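can u pls check wat happens w/ zinc ion
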Amino acid sequence: MSDIKNKILVLICDGMGDRLTNGYTPLEKAYKPNLDFLASQGVLGIMDPIAPGIKPGSDTSHLAILGYDPYKYYTGRGPFEAIGIGMEVKGGDIAFRCNFATSTPELIIKDRRAGRISEGTSLLTETINNLEIDNIKIMFKESVEHRAALVLRGEGLSPFISDTDPHLEDSSVLEAKPLDNSLESLKTANIINKFTRLSYQLLSKHPVNKVRQQKGENPANIILVRGAGLVPYLPSFEEKYHLQGAFIAEVGLIKGIARLLSMHAPDFTFATGSYDTDMKQMILTSLNLLEKYPIVFVNIKTCDLPSHDRNFEMKVRAIERIDEALAPLKDFKGTLAITADHSSPISVGDHSADPVPLLILGDVRKDKVNSFSERDAAQGGLNRIKGVDLMPIILDLAGYSEKFGA
Ligand SMILES: [Zn+2]
């Protein structure tokens, strides 16, 4: 087993970066003695998860932080939606975002969200999952409410086909059409059109929908697809870095990305309530995993909800709870990076392109910054980097890089 000095821990605090509210960011307002102590021992900077001015999704930013250029590997929301709800996708699959919708027998859409159906979609799913059309395997999985994802697997498929979702009510279901002249696109469009009609046949007579109609609710009797995307062929984390990596994440999307890279990403649950995570347990688990793996990533989602709710006080409290959980890291002897996947300002209530703070500890050129916040980090010795720069920097600090040249 390698020395603790060669161990790397990366903590990604989801949406932690912010702008000013009444003159301060939540990080500046929070009482965070542990983060500030760690800052005093390390080197800081700010990081554009993708690039300056580019508003990152959590998927694209995690790809970048893991060192996978999202402009090369991100192929649209379909594949990542499927990954996020736990479908086992493979490079070369074609994935779609889907809706359960309400259709007439003439395939006119009456309700694109099937009355925002909240129950019974797993039973409906059973009848349309694991189908085969023209030798192509069809996998379907329900998500929350009317949402779902569809994955096609087999030879000769293409992501270049149009949506069947008309995006308007009282409109006909659209025919999927090839968007280029390839046989693959024509074949994929045909399969989707067959699947669409089949979904109506199978779902319209399903007992769940009979009950819905008796109750005066809109039946979920057709599947609309949109956002076709090719599941990318990604080199595994181990192929790329010759290191086995582990990822602790509770969010399906992040866990799914780690699994797509063949990282060790078990179904950890640290939830102690609907929005609470036992972060102390999360940190202890990450330290345990470092006994076995040279590099461990952790996604801490605590700041996400207050950011979307635009609740400044709650975000401050979330940061303080993260800080409490970091106490055991004060004598961590490996390379430690603490950052965020994107900013989520209270003033915006959503992701923004503002760079995030970054702190690295280990055998680093310590700078003069003694506090962990967006504006303090901007004074640090790392200056301003991009998300894809993080892996090379920490791998080098931990002693894994090779000389470029003689
Ligand atoms: Zn995020």
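The longest strand covers residues 94-103.
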